Amino acid sequence: MNPADFPTEPHRAKKGEQSTITGMVVNVGLMIIKGLAGWLGNSYALIADALESATDLVTSFFVWLGLRTAAQKPDDNHPYGHGKAEPLAALLVAIALWGAAALIALQSIDNIRTPHELPAPFTLAVLAGVVIIKEVLFRKVTKVGEEVESNAVKADAWHHRSDAITSLTAFIGISIALLGGPGYESADDWAALVASGIIVFNAYLIFRPAFGEIMDEAPPGDWKREIEQIARAVPGVLGTEKCFVRKMGFEFFVDLHVEVSGELTVREGHDIAHAVKAAIQREKPYVYDVLVHIEPA
Q1: Looking at residue 270, which CATH number applies to its domain?
Q2: What is the pLDDT of residues 13-42, one digit of tens each?
Q3: Under 8 Å between Cβ of 290 and 276
Q4: What's the CA dihedral at 127, 55, 140, 89 to 10 degrees?
Q5: Do 174 and 236 share a structural domain?
Q6: How much is the pTM?
Q7: How confident is the model at residue 10 (pLDDT cuts 50, 70, 90)?
């Protein structure tokens, strides 16, 4: 097949891009609101939350760029397409989250050692609003990520969830500081420190599947079993010997060995191979190419 003829699904990438851009616009507003509220309200937990939103902007840009690159058609230099750009974007998100978590943790420890005033009560209202907005964004972007089968979009969704979690921990920390009064000022900073640990864990959840995809790890689920069942149902197929499945961006590639009668002609075996490929792509629309090897039974 000519690279230019490879099937692509630009509408899936477009949908992912739209959800990413929406998140970027929301993060700009939240970053400004949280930063000002943290500064005026004497809350480092809220300032740390604003910093996390700033990293959201950077990583969301990487996700957007990765999605646009992954949607490009195959060319002479990239005959299998540009799908690896998508999990690469997810890896960058995870690394940026780890960097933000380290910065928040270091500043939190410094603030715990340094006496400061109690945070202002109005910061709680700001954080409550942030938690609601970010959780709604997480659910919407997660739904898009599952629809388009994109680790980068799912990573972007988890970035929203981590922001909601940091805001929630900040809310708890500030509440403890306000209820406890003098002597409990550092509760706000302890909350920021706890939030950094949560961010590290969430970053790992993003990193693991993206790294697996970069390494051509078999996709989770029953892909292998389902593809073998589809192949065995094709007339002339006596069985399957090997089945390898890998994911590249929005696309899945299959290498399959099928067993047929050794008495068949080359043309008959060739026709069965095409029938197997067509059946798999019909049942599994996200499979963009199937390499079928014929084995005599």
Answers
A1: 3.30.70.1350
A2: 677 777 788 888 888 888 898 889 888 887
A3: yes
A4: -160
A5: no
A6: 0.68
A7: low
